[in-house]
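Notes from hallway chat w/ T.B., transcribed later so I don't forget. T.B. wanted the structure written out for a chain they're using in a teaching module, and asked if we could keep both sequence and structure tokens in one place. Agreed to drop them here.
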Amino acid sequence: MMPTITKVEACKKNKNRVNIFLDDEFFCSLYAEIAVIHRLKAGEDIDKDFLRRLIGEDENKLALNRALEILSRKPVTEKMLLDKLREKGFSEAAALFALEKLKDYGYIDDSKYAGLYVETATDKGRLRLKKDLRNKGVSDEFIEEALPEPKNEFLRAQAVLTKYLKGNLPETLKEKNKAYRYLLAKGFGYDTAAAVMNPLVDRMK
């Protein structure tokens, strides 16, 4: 014998959701829209398995809305979005549903994310950029497409060094080495750091 829906009431904390009671006992909460679409109302007998499918549909909608909230704050990669949804307790299925929807809408694009990250992180060299983007889940293919060309890498290093020195040339070997290590820490390669530092070293002689 199937249970009976004995009450469908609006949630006190969220008017967009309703609580479903079966045989006078709370069973689940759903988006009101889902309840209306499937015509859930008091007095109707209902299959629990059908309701469980609606709970899955409801979680998908919740995950999608949460994903949109995350994106409204800042761009994220596929991995970053999935990690955040998992942290919020969403099932893998719901998290993947939200991700695929946002990819279909064009709201999630790791290639564009990598390009934007490289464009804005002007104080970082190729090695640091590559490490950061890998940690964010971007594929090596998209990373290589986004990384600055060697010429631009040199100009980046020059700008970083100029800002670091604040108009003061290193006067000792210790200061020169410190500036050199700073460039390395920022993710610039040994060759790039040396090429930027050499003119300063020559001026120290």
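Follow-up for T.B.: The CA atoms of residues 102 and 108 lie 6 Å apart. Might be a good example for the class.
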